[in-house]
Automatic annotation (TrEMBL):
Residues 1-33 form the signal peptide. Hydrolyzes acetyl esters in homogalacturonan regions of pectin. In type I primary cell wall, galacturonic acid residues of pectin can be acetylated at the O-2 and O-3 positions. Decreasing the degree of acetylation of pectin gels in vitro alters their physical properties. Belongs to the pectinacetylesterase family. The keyword Signal applies. The keyword Cell wall biogenesis/degradation applies. It is found in: Secreted, Cell wall. This is Pectin acetylesterase.
């Protein structure tokens, strides 16, 4: 599925679910965090979000710590045990099947880095709000409202990819173990009987959902319908306004610090050229960029992103290191851009769409690229809600994702 809007907008979409529905949402703004904003105003012809209260009528879900994870070494950066927030569904979605083989559906969401509280479960919020794709309201989330839903907390610093430690600094880099320990715990709570499952993530969680998608799918029987979705996780290896590659430098640091060289997707690393004139960390960092990974993901995948991703504009296109004079501040912080800045950003949008061309040609995949100045759209009521289509869009994000997941044909 490829969604292209009539005004400045394209869309690629992916998600996954199980008919014992389990919605596993990995909200990990891990490598990238962002100040998403609610409620949109029009600036330069593009919707911009500003802060809005969630209101009292919102689903609040408590934290569950995986106490058995410590014995498996599945711990946060500081050695504390990891955790997740679980809400059991109802009706046709199927409740968590603790003591039965009842079929159910699950969404798993991987948390974003912005809310991860410095790599320690001791600092995590004990309760969080479930909104957007995690909402339990049929009017806001018609396809997944009654599924079992879990949000996995992010505390490893590398999108659930590392498996090493720094004894001198007393830091644990155990992202892969954390992912497997949480999934094992949820399997024991009924996810093993899921008929449909969707792995989702926002920002670094969206990157995590891409990196762990096939791993997640492999844990279910072939009769389970498993798909994945990456929201705001399509980070480009882009040239910034100074001509450098700020995000590549950041990713290189993550690879070097956590020793990811042998843990990244082999479908990518086996094609790397060690003679390309870069240091090894920089070379291997290429396999953290979704544009170099997505075409090898076997599980159906949906890419949801903004062509004017607010986090990437502020941290990859025009970070302070590339803009010492602050000439891009208004554009990167509030999308108040002049003509030349918009021309640069149009080039960024074109690069994003070009990077998705081959991926979008597969019928199993989906893409939804919006023109909103935003970062993470599936976890927000005002962007996910099916009534909140942007002018020029054929359908809202929730409907587009549902059509892709359930393979509904356009009438």
């Amino acid at each position: 599925m490829f969604i292209f809007s009539k005004r400045k907008m394209n869309a690629f979409l992916w998600s996954w679910s199980l008919t014992g529905f389990f919605l596993l949402s990995i909200l990990a703004n891990g490598v990238l965090g962002s100040d998403e904003m609610d409620l949109f105003n029009l600036i330069n012809g593009t919707n911009v979000f500003q802060k809005q209260d969630d209101g009292a009528d919102v689903l609040v879900v408590g934290l569950t710590l995986v106490q058995t994870a410590a014995a498996e070494g599945a711990v946060c950066l500081d050695g504390s045990v990891t955790g997740y927030h679980l809400y059991c569904g109802s009706g046709s979605g199927g409740k968590c099947a603790f003591n039965s083989r009842r079929a159910n559906n699950w969404i798993i969401q991987l948390e974003n880095r912005k809310r991860s509280r410095v790599g320690s479960s001791t600092l995590m919020e004990k309760q969080i709000n479930f909104k957007g794709i995690l909402s339990s309201k049929v009017a806001e989330n018609p396809d997944f409202y009654n599924w079992n839903k879990a949000e996995v907390r992010y505390c490893d610093g590398a999108s659930f990819s590392g498996d090493s430690e720094n004894k001198t600094a007393q830091l644990q880099f155990r992202g892969k173990r954390i992912f497997l320990a949480v999934i094992e715990d949820l399997m024991a709570k009924g996810m093993r009987y899921a008929k449909q499952a969707l792995l989702n993530g926002c920002s670094s969680g969206g990157l995590s959902a891409i990196l762990r998608c096939d791993d997640f799918s492999s844990l279910f029987p072939h009769t389970t319908k498993v798909k994945c979705m990456s929201d705001a996780g399509f980070f480009l290896d882009a040239v910034d306004i100074s001509g450098a590659r700020s995000l590549r430098r950041m990713y290189s640091g993550v690879v070097n610090t956590q020793g990811l060289q042998n843990l990244l997707p082999r479908t990518c690393t086996r094609h790397l050229d060690p003679t390309m004139g870069l240091n090894l960390a920089s070379i291997f960092s290429q396999c953290l960029f979704p544009q170099n990974i997505i075409n090898q993901v076997r599980t159906p995948l949906f890419i949801l992103n903004s062509a004017f991703d607010s986090w990437q504009i502020e941290n990859s296109i025009a970070p302070p290191s590339a803009d010492p004079s602050g000439s891009w501040h208004n554009c990167s912080s509030s999308f108040n851009c002049n003509a030349s800045q918009m021309q640069f950003l149009e080039g960024f949008k074109k690069s994003m769409l070009d990077a998705l061309k081959t991926f979008s040609m597969s019928s199993k995949n989906g893409v939804f690229i919006s023109s909103r100045w935003a970062h993470c759209q599936a976890e927000r009521k005002d962007t996910w809600f099916p009534g909140n289509s942007q002018p020029g869009e054929d359908k809202g994000i929730a409907v587009a994702v549902g059509d892709w997941y359930f393979e509904r044909t356009k009438k």
